[in-house]
From TrEMBL:
Residues 1-154 form the Spermatogenesis-associated protein 20-like TRX domain. SUPFAM superfamilies: Six-hairpin glycosidases, Thioredoxin-like. The lineage of its organism: Bacteria, Pseudomonadati, Bacteroidota, Sphingobacteriia, Sphingobacteriales. CDD domains: SSP411 (cd02955). This is Thioredoxin domain-containing protein. It comes from Mucilaginibacter pankratovii.
Length: 673
């Protein structure tokens, strides 16, 4: 075993028996590199990554390859989910060098951590040749290596940075015209989603477009969002047997998934489908939301009510083996019902993807359309399909399961907690709120020390010198937990959650915010220093921590009537606004903040004995640009002098409140007029 054997990271433990003399990222490895003047080989991945497994089997388990790595390099293995700050640095380097990125990420660095070369997956022979060439390059041309490291490190420091904007622009609806013009170039009008293969769900993009379509009454954008939601739910990227979404589709039609299932995707997609249901009462959205929750509760929930990170793409060393079926297997499981099931999910004898005879389940027709094709009543079709699904689920459950990444990350738990709150808001199912509260209590008890967060829930690792391994925490942890606690307040009116959110946000401002740039750093001021201190600005599959924090501060500014929060959020938007039209899909959450800025935010206060029933009524109406607060008591400034036994709804906006009303219909009139 190498030095990864004492790690708690499932990804690092996967490499603990490699003949490579792996080190975890930390002082021991970094000191060794400087002391021996050796190049550092940083290899970054995560436990559910299929191509990470492939490179491990081909290269890192090979004695000859390992001998080369051990001879010429100090080899460091990094779990990108535990150390996204390290990943951010070297991913920036790879993207600057090649224009693309991904995992596994392999970067060769000077002994002081500055990169000189890198890439993603390498075949074994290419990898060995590359290592020999780089070792020789560093030995024979150290000045060239130094020169390249200087230029590349300067590029990393500038990458994903923005200038401080002093001017205070007047935003208007016209600002959306160039943004949407750029965005629509990426619309797939046939299959939904953005671009071609591979196709990622990008839930925040759809969430913004849904809100934009509603507030601007843009029917074309609304139709596109509905198409995307429908196609994703019908595609093979969705697990039609057990619920939950895979990370992405390898094709452009949502058919064949990359089978890993991530908590962060499913938390965000739960929010998306729940909010979409309030916007457009499609029962498909409700079904998808319910099945995501069932999947997460069944397969990604710890005994302590934390949420695990991911399920692997592979089982028994084979991608997707747990999920795929031959027609013969289904006939054995379902008997006479197999024919109907196979028609419904497009199962064929030959198979419908790359592996012969194997099938990924997907749909093309809605239930009414399929029932008409088959000449069956809809109720009978659904009854028979659901019975067959359960039988397939039971049979699948007996297979060897994909590996579980049992890390519990604060950031991703925040996304799932927010999803549960959004689901409770949309569907009023007490079980959703119960699970949300259990998770929030877990986070509050186990991952918060005062207002400081812990990124990972795990036993502390003892280092060889007797110290405990420090656990860094990053801005996305703070941003997503604050967002989730705000959402939890809005469905419970329990001020403790909002006060918790405020304290955590204040801690982030103190340790992560830079007044000179008007943005938050990704790492804290007291964290271990890397070769650059970066900000996370562009929204990806997960919204950037800066955009989430900006939106949080805008909400907290309204809840607590605190101008400092408004000023920070406004400055952050000013810095980003010049970039929105250039690459719209990479700034979706920022554009949602612009949407709130232009259309304003309604503050809906509901107080009195019957507040809960009116809160539920209000929530059944799609008002994407609102905060909601109230209860029978409270200390928030907007609630001052608003408590009495009679239940009242107050609609406020721009520091002005309309006359209170006692029913939802009159409250909606004040919003819609």
């Amino acid at each position: 075993m190498n030095r990864l054997a004492t790690s708690t990271s499932p990804y690092l433990l996967q490499h603990a028996n490699n003949p490579v003399n792996w080190y975890p990222w930390g002082p021991e490895a970094l000191h060794k590199a400087k002391e021996e003047n050796k190049l550092i080989l940083v290899s970054i991945g995560y436990s559910a990554c299929h191509w990470c497994h492939v490179m491990e089997h081909e290269s890192f388990e090979d004695e000859a390859v390992a001998a080369v790595m051990n001879e010429y390099f100090v080899c460091i293995k990094v779990d990108r989910e535990e150390r996204p700050d390290v990943d951010q640095i070297y991913m920036s380097a790879i993207q600057l060098m090649s224009g693309r990125g991904g995992w596994p990420l392999n970067c060769i660095c000077l002994p002081d951590q500055r990169p000189i070369y890198g890439g993603t997956y390498f075949r074994k022979n290419d990898w060995t040749s590359l290592l020999f060439n780089l070792a020789d390059f560093y030995k024979t041309k150290p000045e060239e290596a130094e020169d390249y490291a200087v230029r590349l490190t300067d590029g990393i420091k500038q990458y994903e940075s923005v200038a401080f904007v002093h001017e205070k622009p007047e935003y208007s609806k016209a600002d959306f015209e160039p943004i949407l013009k750029t965005w629509k170039r990426y619309f797939d009008e046939e299959e939904g989603g953005f671009g071609g293969a591979p196709k990622f769900p990008m839930p925040n993009n759809s969430l913004f477009l849904m809100r934009y379509a509603h507030l601007t009454q843009d029917d074309d954008v609304a139709d596109f969002v509905k198409l995307t939601l429908h196609k994703m739910a019908f595609g093979g990227i969705y697990d039609h047997i057990g619920g939950g979404f895979a990370r992405y589709a390898v094709d452009g039609v949502w058919h064949v998934p990359h089978f890993e299932k991530m908590l962060y995707d499913n938390g965000q997609l739960l929010s998306l489908y729940a909010e979409a249901y309030i916007w457009n009462l499609d029962p498909l959205y409700k079904t998808i939301a319910a099945e995501i929750i069932s999947f997460v509760k069944r397969e990604l929930t710890s005994p302590e009510n934390g949420f695990y990170s991911a399920l692997d793409a592979d089982s028994e060393g084979k991608e997707g083996k747990f999920y795929i079926f031959t027609k013969a297997e289904l006939e054995e499981i379902l008997g006479d019902e197999a024919q109907l099931f196979c028609i419904y999910y497009y199962v064929t004898d030959a198979g419908n993807w790359e592996e012969e005879h194997s099938n990924v389940f997907f749909r093309r027709e809605g239930d009414e359309e399929m029932a008409a094709i088959l000449g069956l009543p809809v109720d009978e079709l659904l009854s028979r399909i659901n019975t067959s699904r359960q039988k397939v689920f039971d049979a699948r459950s007996k297979r060897i399961r994909p590996g579980l990444d049992n890390k519990i990350l604060a950031s991703w738990n925040g996304l799932m907690l927010k999803g549960l709150c959004d689901a409770y808001r949309a569907f009023d199912d007490p079980a959703y709120l119960e699970l949300a509260l259990k998770n929030a209590d877990f986070l509050n008890s186990n991952m918060l020390s005062g207002d400081k967060l812990l990124r990972i829930f795990k036993e502390p690792v003892l280092l060889p010198n007797g110290d405990h391994e420090p656990i860094a925490t990053f801005l996305d942890d703070y941003a997503n937990i604050v967002d989730a606690f705000i959402a939890l307040y809005e469905v419970t009116f329990d001020e403790d959650w909002l006060i918790r959110a405020k304290g955590i946000a204040d801690y982030a401002i103190l340790h992560y915010y830079d007044k000179h740039t008007g943005m938050f750093y990704y790492t804290a001021d007291d964290d271990q220093h890397l070769i650059a201190r970066k900000s996370e600005i562009m929204d990806g599959v997960i919204p950037a921590s800066n955009s989430v924090m900006a939106r949080n501060l805008k909400k907290l500014g309204l809840f607590f009537d605190q101008e400092e929060y408004h000023e920070i959020a406004a400055q952050m938007l000013r810095n980003i606004a010049p970039h929105l039209a250039k690459y719209s899909t990479a700034y979706s959450n920022w554009t949602a903040l612009l949407l709130d800025e232009i259309f304003g935010t309604y503050e809906v206060a509901i107080t009195g004995d019957n507040y809960e029933s009116l809160r539920k009524e209000v929530e059944q109406n799609y008002i994407p640009n609102k905060i909601i607060l109230g209860g029978k008591k409270g200390t928030l400034p907007l609630l001052t002098d608003k408590f009495e036994s009679n239940t009242r709804i107050y609609i406020c906006k721009d520091k002005t409140c309309s006359l209170p009303v006692d029913n939802t219909a009159d409250a909606l009139k004040q919003i819609n007029n």
